[in-house]
Design brief:
The chain is built from 10 helices and 15 strands. It has about 400 residues and is an alpha/beta fold. It has one domain: Rossmann fold (3-Layer(aba) Sandwich). α7 crosses α10 and α9 packs antiparallel against α10. The longest helix has 18 residues. The radius of gyration is 19 Å and the shape is globular. The two termini are about 40 Å apart. The relative contact order is 0.20.
């Protein structure tokens, strides 16, 4: 049975033997050399043509189409129309096929990262996944070179996403099921040499931080490390990620950045295991900074068809969701998440709720919150690490500002 992710409150976090994390990250290192940052610190991407923040730092294309969802029924044709327009606008191509060929080519092995958390009210739409698959095909990527995945295979199946994956395309999880300790790296079939069915985490690729959950042995290196999934490190060379427009009880919002930091590695509960040890602000940027994640996460398509403004990421109450009818397309996860942050706060204001950065057990709306304070500031901190552009109106000029384009294709 699929486990509901509990980040909106305590829930199963308390099962970690009263787990507590160190109050701050005292240091961090990755298992490979970081790519060199650009001189301005906001357009870093190493020497790779693609990756984070990608060829179009700061550019976020919001495509609106009121036909994408009506009365909780999604229309794949309308979603496909919106995606095609968004891809062309992002890349500057004349049409969607040319746009997909700008980023992908025959021989690429592409992972499609879904997000089932929030099922059934708000998760990555299978209709969107199918349109992404068609886009990849148009660029010459063959079905056998695609894999649709999520961190936990049981959550993927629990959301019924596997039923929508077309024949000839693989689907899997980085791990099989939720593990309360979250430090085990072994999955299944690791010794067969068949990477098509491997689950588990790479012993050689990780982000190490001085952050250990209480009750675990700090002498065990695994407690200080978040290992990348084997699928990420050894199987695919590019990843398309489908985050969802949602608030988040500890990180403030959950978007492109958190979908990478908490969806591509293990040992993530240590980042927000108790109300008074929330360190998502540091954890999220540090993990996304890993050079393999930066290099391979080439395209973000945020599913904003249905949004969550309170109670995320679990989307436990229908009244805290709304039919937003938008897709967001970008290569820059920082810019994308800052746009999402503004949209979520605007909806919260409309509903009489305080901004996500002001709420917490020690702040506003204390009785409803699960952590001392939410931490949407991880988005700016990610920008400080060169992972993208944060400012909407930078004093350094347009080149360093978010270029948020809104298009209506109704």
């Amino acid at each position: 049975m699929s486990r509901k992710y509990p980040c909106g409150g305590l829930g199963r976090r308390q099962l970690l033997a009263g787990a507590a994390a160190l109050p701050a990250l005292l240091g961090a290192r990755v298992s490979a050399q970081q790519p060199k940052a650009a001189a301005d610190g906001a357009e870093a991407g190493g020497d790779e043509a693609w990756g984070v923040p990608g060829p179009w730092p700061g550019r976020v294309v919001e495509v609106r189409n009121p036909a994408m969802i009506r009365d909780d029924r999604k229309d794949r044709e309308a979603i496909g129309k919106a995606l095609a327009r968004g891809m062309a606008e992002l890349t500057g191509a004349d049409d969607a096929v040319s746009a997909w060929r700008t980023l992908f080519e025959p021989g690429d092995v592409v992972g499609i990262k879904m997000n089932p958390v929030g099922n059934p009210l708000a998760n990555s739409s299978t209709e969107l996944m199918l349109e992404v698959i068609e886009g990849l095909k148009s660029a010459g990527v063959v079905p056998k070179d695609m894999v649709v995945f999520e961190r936990y295979r049981d959550e993927f199946v629990g959301a019924g996403m596997h039923e929508a994956v077309p024949d000839g395309i693989d689907w899997t999880g980085l791990g099989i099921a939720y593990n309360g300790r979250q430090v085990d790296i072994r999955g299944d079939d690791l010794d067969t040499g068949n990477l098509d069915r491997v689950t588990g985490y790479d012993p050689d690729e990780f982000v190490e931080m001085n952050l250990v959950a209480a009750g675990l042995d700090p002498k065990d290196d695994r407690t200080r490390r978040s290992h990348l999934g084997l699928l990420v490190t050894r199987r695919v060379n590019k990843i398309v990620l489908l985050p969802v427009l949602k608030d988040h009880g500890s990180a403030g919002i959950t978007g492109a950045l958190k979908n990478m930091s908490h969806g591509l590695v293990n040992n993530v509960a240590r980042s927000h295991s108790t109300p008074d040890t929330n360190v998502c602000n540091q954890f999220i940027p540090e993990v996304v900074s890993h050079p393999i994640i930066r290099k391979k996460c080439v395209l973000q398509i945020m599913d904003g068809i249905k949004g969550v403004y309170q109670g995320g990421p679990g989307a436990s109450r229908p009244e805290w969701t709304w039919e937003n009818n938008a897709l967001f397309v970008a290569t820059d996860p920082v810019a994308m998440d800052h746009v999402a942050w503004r949209i979520i706060d605007a909806k919260r204001k409309e509903k009489g709720l305080a901004p996500v950065g002001a709420v917490g057990k020690l702040g506003l709306d204390a009785e409803r919150e699960g952590f001392d304070f939410r931490q949407p500031q991880h988005i700016r901190l990610a920008s400080n690490l060169g992972l993208g552009i944060f400012e909407f109106d930078s004093p350094r000029g347009r080149r360093h500002s978010i270029d948020h384009r809104t298009i209506d294709v109704s």
